[in-house]
Amino acid sequence: MAAERFLIVNADDFGLSSGVNRGIITAHTDGIVTSASLMVRAPAAREAAEYCRSYPSLSLGLHVDLGEWIYQNEDWIPLYHVVPTTDSKAVADEIMRQFDQFVHLTGGNPTHLDSHQHVHRHEPVRSILLSLARNLHVPLRHFSPGIHYCGDFYGQTAKGAPFPEAITVPKLVNTLLTLPSGITELGCHPGHPDDLNSSYRDERYSEVRTLCDPQVRTSITNAQISLCSFGDIACIAAESN
Fold first, then answer.
1. Distance (Å, whole) CA 139 – CA 45
2. Residue 38 is part of which domain span?
3. CATH code of the domain in which 218 resides
4. CA 84, CA 77: separation in Å to the nearest integer?
């Protein structure tokens, strides 16, 4: 018998705008999104937290925001910096400020941790977030054994060029059918872009449509993949022991 496969579909950038919030909620209620990561600094963060009170099945993590970069003229150019990402004290203080704001907005701790544009893959952000994840007993993207991260569902290349074929239904179905055994987190960025000025804009609505396509859920069912959220991980671990 094939090894069991569990799938967490996590929507980043929750709170970025009202349109992004609506897209994520639609991809949860009508599609396969099971978890989301909240940007507490973003304009619609409070609205996103209110949504979660109505949709408790959507587990909510903290999407640490320390800056954003775009690729231009063969180099990564900062759009904004929250704090210098090489300053350990500034990074630690900002992460705790965002964590405290998360608790204030939601009334609870995050079910998982990650960061905008994966800045935590580098030091000193990595060590600081690893320490917080251990204290909270929650997963940190890329660094939690037993949880594989899949970033294939993204409508741009690594240098920001359009890559729409990556977020089509056939491509997503193929990705799902080739998932490894165990737990996989599939990253996504759904949203309605009408109120958003972003380098990743129109792709968000394409993601909503794909994530809500009936063929995708049918493929998950036929492949005997179990949809779950970060809030379910403790139960999965207990059942496997």
1. 22
2. 5-240
3. 3.20.20.370
4. 14
220 vs 92, 118, 161, 174, 182, CA distance in Å?
Answer: 39, 27, 29, 11, 15
Q: How many CB atoms lie within 10 A of CB 60?
A: 27
Whole-prediction pTM:
0.95
How many domains does the chain divide into?
1
pLDDT 10s digits, 149-188: 999 999 999 888 999 999 999 999 999 999 999 999 999 9
Count CB atoms within 10 A of the CB of residue 88.
Answer: 14
Which residues contact residue 50 at a Cβ distance below 8 angstroms, ignoring those fewer than 6 apart? none
Distance CA 61, CA 111 (A): 5
Dihedral (Cα; 22, 61, 141, 19), 10-degree rounding: 20
Region 17-23 average pLDDT: 97
